[in-house]
Write a structure and sequence with these properties.
mainly alpha
Length: about 80
């Protein structure tokens, strides 16, 4: 992946840095680097994926309970 930002002078440097950061974030370069930082065995990858799904499900259930409790309190 290649990200390029051009600028002409020092005044444009801050704008160029902001633009560069935005493009890197949009291209998801850091996420890709973190993912490939070290090797993860397929079995561990499956386990982590399953644990993330459990966390996500619990978070969603708690959020739904909070919303329903707030809705009852507002009524």
């Amino acid at each position: 992946m290649y990200v390029e930002v051009r600028g002409s002078d020092d005044a444009a440097f801050q704008r160029a840095m902001t633009e560069f950061k935005r493009r890197v974030k949009k291209a998801e370069l850091f996420e890709d680097l973190k993912k490939h930082e070290y090797y993860v065995k397929p079995s561990l990858r499956k386990k982590l994926k399953r644990l993330d799904a459990i966390k996500r499900k619990r978070r969603d259930e708690n959020e739904a309970l909070r919303r329903s409790k707030n809705a009852r309190d507002d009524s």
